[in-house]
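Incident log, structure service

09:12 report received: a user says their structure output differs between two submissions of the same chain.
09:20 pulled the input from the user's history:
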Amino acid sequence: MPEPMIELDLTAPWEPGESAGPPPNRRRARRVAGAGIVAVVAAGVLTAAGPARADTPVFALDYQVTGVHLAGGRVFAGRYKPAGAGQELEALDARTGRLLWSLPMEQHEYLRSVTAGVVVLVQERGAPEDGVTDLAVHDAATGARLWQRTAVRVLGRFGGRVLIEEVTGGTRDARTVVVTELADDGGGIRNQPPEQREQHLLALDERTGAPAWRIDVPKGNLLSFEFGGSWEVLRSMAELTPAGELRQRDPRDGTVTKTDRLDWSGAASWFDVSGGEVVVYPVGAVGGDVYDRVSGRRLWHWQDLGHFGGLGTCAPGLYCVQDQDGTTAVDQRTGQTRWRVQQYNSILGLTEHAMIMTVWEPPDLAPGPIAAVDTRTGRPTTVLEGWFAIQPSGAGVLVWKPVGQREAVLARLDPATGRVQVFGRPQDWFGRPECVAEGDTLACVAVGGLTVWRLP
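09:34 re-ran on a clean worker, output below:
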């Protein structure tokens, strides 16, 4: 039986509905852009955002915008100054668009992250791929500089602190990585050796820059980080030694909270921890080995010649591997293939029994379908065609669709009401926008123009 497919006709004039219904209760999850969509695409009801909400932006900046962040009811926009005079950062009130403050930005300086209290700016030192920057932290309310630090690598933030790595001497040692070394049987690219250096980690108070704790990681040990809904928000960290000792660390104070020992030793390219399993990618090997965290024993070996990256947790008990033609889900404990779905190779979100997926395509191509895929069977249960997905952190699965040549429609797939709610009609959108969201505010940059919207 073919899955239900829904195509919404937006060529007719849009009129507000009588009621948008109550807002849904949303659940945030690791690496998930939003919650359920299955009921939404199944019902396929197109509604207005409510009679009190217009489908025009709260405010807009017409040109020269390079990027946007949201935090604490403020919009932070990077902009080019007139007549080629460099860039500046502007802070605006998210409700009114009123300019609160601005400050000049240096060459190769960019906004790394924002919170309700601080703005984190970094300026590249040397080659961008080195990741070495100078760090400057400003007050989010006034723009005043609070503190700065040179030659660091910013790893993330948590609980009012910024985790950095000090780079000794201000640069990293030069290294050459061979990425085309094939296994003897031609069965894939071998895992490359990591950069060998001591790592000096500092957790700094975001307001003062004062160190809260410090860890010195010996050369040869590897670190792995788990992030929350935002890739900036650090949830946990682990350390693996060449002897196979796995140390779980609390990012609040850096202390070791749990120690396990894997039945492995040697050099690893990288590793990843997911619940009760640990994946180690040994240097010189193809693929990775999955270990039981408690007993330390090796469970199974994985390699896939067509994969985009390593094994990634996508649902409870499942690793997912994406390739050009689709996604394969494998059992974390046994390595057996649970299911394979063709075409869909990008995961947007997770509900109780479904993964919300789409098709990764280059920016100049038409939108791929958005599907709710049953995590137990891999079968697409509902499909929505003709919409681009937006993945701002914490605001659910938002979508947009071109209407004509110069107009678009912004909508929200609402799992609580089973409706596709239209809340905006942007004008002069070309290409794909860059969007972020916080609370009931969405900010999008398209072709240098910024529009700020109120979410339903």
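09:41 both user submissions now match this output. Likely a transient worker issue. Closing.
09:42 reviewer note: The chain has one domain: 28-454. The longest helix spans residues 38-43.
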